[in-house]
Amino acid sequence: MIERGGQLVLQLCANVQQHTIRPHILTAIQPGSLVNTDEYAIYSRLPSWGFTHVTVNHGRGEFARDDDGDGVNEVHVNTIEGVWSLLRSWLRPHRGISQRWLPLYLAFFQAMHNVRCRGFSLLEPMLTLLLISAPRNAG
């Protein structure tokens, strides 16, 4: 899940069912928010969970839509599609990842995406994250 210009939240789910994704959605997205998704049926209950929901129908070749006629395609899932593209290209050199370590890879990718730095400029935010979360010795 990602808000355009906001923070990325990645959750590894045991399966893709409404009862499995609901707690993650309710935790990560503010009630009343507008949520853009594709037409996948799993998202059909978003309105009953307290969200405004709009979709694009990839199955009909629709990838963006201008609902208010102002020339701007407000309804799209391009932001999260871009994240998946980045994640796949970041994982590709690893040539397969053990399911055991996948949550750590996803957490690292999420953290690095959210600090919005690349290359050497990642060093300072990464060290800051490590130092903040490192256990303190009481001695």
Determine Rg (CA atoms, Å).
18 Å
Distance between the ends: 41 Å
N-to-C SSE string, H for helix and E for strand: HEEEEHHH
* Shape designation: globular
Number of strands: 4
- Within the largest sheet, what's the order of strands? 1-2
Report the major sheet: 2 strands, parallel
- Helical residue percent band: 25-40%
Number of helices: 4
- Mean pLDDT over all positions: 88
Determine the strand fraction and express it as a percent band. Answer: 5-15%
Secondary-structure-based class equals alpha+beta
Low-confidence segments? none
Give a quick summary of the entry.
The chain is of the alpha+beta class and 139 residues long. The chain contains four helices and four strands, in the order H-E-E-E-E-H-H-H.
Structure characterization notes:
With 139 residues, the protein is an alpha+beta fold. It has a domain at 18-98. The protein is 36% helix and 10% strand. The protein has four helices and four strands; from the N terminus they run H-E-E-E-E-H-H-H. It has helices spanning 18-28, 78-91, 102-115, 123-133; strands at 34-38, 52-56, 64-65, 75-76. The chain has a two-stranded parallel sheet. Strands 3-4 form a two-stranded antiparallel ribbon. The protein is globular and about 55 Å long. The termini are far apart. The model has no long low-confidence stretch (mean pLDDT 88).
Q: Which tags fit this structure?
A:
139 residues; two-stranded parallel sheet; two-stranded antiparallel ribbon; 4 helices
Furnish the topology, listing elements before pairings:
Blueprint: H1 18-28, E1 34-38, E2 52-56, E3 64-65, E4 75-76, H2 78-91, H3 102-115, H4 123-133
Parallel strand pairs: 1-2
Antiparallel strand pairs: 3-4
